[in-house]
Structure formats: C-alpha cells, structure tokens
C-alpha cells in the first residue's frame, strides 16, 4: 500500500524543522548540550539544573505622562526586591530564602530544609522617558514602578515652495 502525503503533511514537517532550528538557536547549553529556551526560562523537562526563579505576572501600560509597570510579587519583602531603571529598560530581581531547622533528640530526629526562590524580569522602555525620576512602590504583593515621560516639543514645520 502506497502512503499518500498531502500538502499539510509537508507543511507540518517544515514547521517541525523550523521549531527545531529556533530551539537550537535560542537554547542549548554549550557545555552540557542540554537545550534550554532562553526566552521562556529554564526547561521543565527534567533538566539536571533548574532554576527557582519565576517570571512574575505583570502589566505594563502607558499614559500621556508616564509609563507604569505593575508586577505581582506575592510573598516578597520590600527589602528583598532590587529594581534597576535605565533609559533602556527596567530590571527587577527579587530573591528570598528560608531555612527550617527542627531537632528532636528524644525521637532521634533532625530535619534541615532550605528553600530559595525569586522573581526576575526585564522590560524595555520607550526612548522618551526620564529614568532618573522613576519611582517604585510595593504594596499588598504588587510592585508599581512609574517612569515619567519627557516633554517632547513639537517641531516647527515650514511649508516649502517647490521650484
């Protein structure tokens, strides 16, 4: 029996090849050969090394006077959050760690647990912002960063006569 291929089979094959090409381009550890998509963070497919850093949920929007980023970071303390703002963008990093020690000599039990986790995110900013006047506020698990826009003077226009 002869197998018939349709145009859709060929398109599916091409799509799989393109996906593999992009996976190889954006991922892949040059030392260990494990593939990891750099745009989405660590792979969840059982890699030996995985990160506990998450990309927080966020809303970035623009008004006439400012650019506002609201980032959800539940369970973080204000002192654990680092925000760097430049003319190019906003970088947010937050890390928390916890250690639990429990010892019961009568039962012969000793338990020591460590937990490290955090958030990491970067946003690009438009060219018409004043990063030096940015401010941040953390309240109820939401970090709000406000970056004012520069006043752009409208350029004077002159009508030219065509000769």
Q: Total number of β-strand segments?
A: 8
CATH class of the largest domain: Mainly Beta
State the strand order across the main sheet: 1-6-5-4
Which fold name corresponds to the CATH topology of the largest domain? Answer: Immunoglobulin-like
What value does the average pLDDT take?
79
CA radius of gyration is: 25 Å
Largest sheet: 4 strands, mixed
Count of discrete domains: 2
Sheet-strand content, in percent, reads 35-45%
Stretches where pLDDT is under 50 for at least 5 consecutive residues are 29-50
Pairing-aware structural class of the strands and helices?
Answer: mainly beta
Q: So what's the oligomer here?
A: single chain
Distance between the termini: 77 Å
CATH architecture title of the largest domain: Sandwich
Shape: flat
Structure annotation, total helices: 1
Element string (H = helix, E = strand): HEEEEEEEE
What is the percent of helical residues? 10-25%
Supply database-style keywords.
2 domains, Immunoglobulin-like, flat, 163 residues, mainly beta, four-stranded antiparallel sheet, 12% helix
